[in-house]
Amino acid sequence: MPKAAPFLSILLLITTCIAHAAGDAVAGDPWQDPEEVQQPAVIFAGEWQLLHQNTGVSAMHMQLLPGDFVLMFDRTDSGPSNISLDALSPCAAPTAAGGGGAVDCTAHSVLLDLRSNTLRPYPLATNPWCSSAALLPNGTLLQTGGFSKGDRIARLFSPSTGWVDLPSFLAVRRWYATDILLADGRVLILGGRRQFNFEFFPHDDVPQLTLFPFLDETTDMDAENNLYPFLHLLPDGTVFAFANDRAVVFDPYNRAPLRHLPAIPGGVPRNYPSSGSSVLLPLRPESPTHAEVLVCGGAPRGGYRLALRNGTFVPADRTCGRIAPTDANPVWAMEEMPLPRVMGDMVLLPTGDVLIVNGAAAGTAGWELGREPVMYPVLYKQDMQLGARFEVLAASTIPRMYHSSATLDTYGRVLVGGSNPHVGYVFTNVTYPTDLSLEAFLPPYLDARLDGVRPRLVAAPAEVGYGEAAAVRFEVPGGAVSGGPEEVRVAVVAPAFATHSFGMNQRVVSLAVGTVAQLDAGLYEAQVAAPPSPSVAPPGYYLWFVVHAGVPSSATWVRVRPLGAAK
Q1: Can you list the domains of the chain with their CATH numbers?
Q2: Fewer CB atoms inside 10 Å of the end CB: C or N, the chain?
Q3: pTM for this one?
Q4: Cβ 471 vs Cβ 461: under 8 Å
């Protein structure tokens, strides 16, 4: 493992970057008074814990599943992994790439049981390298595409069945595509290398393609820069799509004409291989039709070509753009992160904040094309004043470069794994070795000093229908709700499928809280309204967190029933 830079050097770099960020005028926000811009805080809060030194696979893809399981997998053509299949699982046939002609009796996917912290290997029959996925309303993971013989396969995964392949399900090859769960419970599968179209799961007997010229329009001839497009379901049922440096809104059901939004200022590509990241900011009950999208990081245009052809690793971008695509005339508001970052992961937290973690300060995504790992995560607080939204948090000691991932878990931690910028598993004599470890980052709200106000969720409904009233019971160790009932929120979180710097389908919905009644000493019941529509929260499984005085509980799983489904 490469040695981290000395602490004082890193601190100097961060301080210099923050001073620069605070002094810069911010483009795209004409209403911001420069004198009101405040300097971000450098507090180095948070804590890192090592959960597994060796999970057996490098976590290129990661998904939290109902029942508190985390699925991690990489690819089947990189040679043997570091975890064997169980005795009852068949070995894989020899592969042409990296396998050396040998039968592969190792696993390329593992399932982590969060409650016991134990791992179980699962066999993968076809190659899911650089694929896409979405959690279906029944809790099964739909996983689509990949490479070679896996590029037209859809796969279903659950802990009880393992992987089930649906051969030739996809109408075309899908490699570096994006999946998004829609309001009607279908999954839209969009893009992929040289695929300017989309299709649905499930589909009719004959798969149908819908052309999507926006992906053709946003392709850079020398680098593409529009793979793994960012897709977000908006509360009116339309879809926000971002590729390269441009965005559109479209109706996936009626194939309505695209509504083109302004290009993000600066002209910096944000999609693979220039790999920034994006989230839909939390949806709130007081403004149910309003939505904002945040896009951060990336690499300057031409950076991929320079890194690939002559080993020149240009500095990553450090700007973020924020836009409300539901507005009549959307405008990007630009701001700067304390540190530049490419290949970062953005994770929505139950508090409504965004954690930005992993990645590099130079180069791009791709084999051997990143340099200068960014070890410090950053917290983005959307409700703070412009210029005071970022906090630099405690650093990891493990570089997380290309093929890293991060996702929120049931306990409010952020699981961080992966990093393999090589064709195969390489552990020695390279700048950034393949990493098989799994860490948990504990955001500042998990500080033990907050345990006196930390709620403990006692009871919540197993499932709800749209708009239904629901009771959520919780305890407060200190006995009294701090600051009154208005300090209690219930956050509903859809878990992400994390890969290649984008968490597909992650979203946070704050529920409308009516009354908060005290039932006993330290025991409370909040009356909440379930999400109002499937456009706000598509049907399926969600994590429900109680947030008291800004501190979240651990979560419980609650299923939101499809419209018309029986109780």
Answers
A1: 52-86+105-446 (2.130.10.80), 452-560 (2.60.40.10)
A2: C
A3: 0.91
A4: yes
